[in-house]
């Protein structure tokens, strides 16, 4: 096992609220209740993102205030360096299963699909997935330890 993996594991154990795999990185206007990633089980230490495939990420959460609009902001963190990832659809109110505006205290399940391109390197990556409100505040912030394969 390498050090990065061990760090991920310690980090996940310390701050995880959802499962062993996912951790929270500062959800402020909401609480995440569940995360689901294609072919990834809660017991997996890392989610395997297969190249040349589409991966669907679902985040269930409860806003603690009413929110006009949400946008998805995604980074791939490789060796601690966050690299912006352009989602095909970053509008969290469109084709995401979430209808805007969002009401306080209600459970929403956001869903998006992203392509894992064949040209991506085979690396360990933490997917930092944020749903932000109209003023760029984090409704949810989740870290998904992953491995591109
Ligand atoms: C929502 O919760 C966060 C902390 O989890 C807090 O900072 C914020 O003030 C809360 N907002 C409301 C409207 O309760
Ligand atoms: C991923 O989804 C897009 C849009 O639906 C589709 O065009 C593409 O062929 C899919 N890629 C793979 C590898 O399945």
TrEMBL record:
Gene3D superfamilies membership: 2.60.40.770
Predominant subcellular localization, coarse grouping: secreted
The UniProt record lists the keyword Secreted: yes
Keyword Lipid biosynthesis applies: no
Alphabetized InterPro entries for the sequence: Ig_E-set (IPR014756), ML_dom (IPR003172), ML_Npc2-like (IPR033916), NPC2-like (IPR039670)
Keywords: Disulfide bond, Secreted, Signal
Signal sequence annotation: 1-20
GO CC terms in record: extracellular region
Coiled-coil stretches: none
GO BP field: intracellular cholesterol transport
Classification via SUPFAM superfamilies: E set domains (SSF81296)
Domain MD-2-related lipid-recognition: 22-146
Locations listed in the record: Secreted
GO molecular function, one term: sterol binding
Family: Belongs to the NPC2 family.
Descriptive protein name: ML domain
Gene source species: Popillia japonica (Japanese beetle)
Organism ancestry: Eukaryota, Metazoa, Ecdysozoa, Arthropoda, Hexapoda
């Amino acid at each position: 096992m390498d050090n990065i993996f061990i760090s991920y594991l310690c980090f996940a154990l310390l701050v995880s609220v959802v499962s062993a795999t996912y951790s929270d990185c500062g959800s402020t206007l909401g609480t995440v209740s569940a995360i689901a990633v294609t072919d990834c089980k809660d017991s997996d230490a890392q989610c395997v993102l297969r190249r040349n495939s589409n991966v669907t990420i679902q985040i269930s959460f409860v806003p603690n205030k009413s929110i006009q609009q949400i946008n998805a902001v995604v980074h791939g963190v490789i060796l601690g360096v966050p690299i912006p990832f352009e989602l095909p659809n970053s509008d969290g109110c469109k084709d995401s299963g979430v209808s805007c505006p969002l009401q306080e205290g209600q459970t929403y399940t956001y869903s998006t699909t992203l392509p894992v391109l064949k040209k991506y390197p085979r690396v360990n990556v933490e997917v930092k997935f944020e749903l932000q409100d109209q003023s760029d505040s984090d409704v949810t912030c989740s870290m998904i330890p992953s491995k591109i394969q």
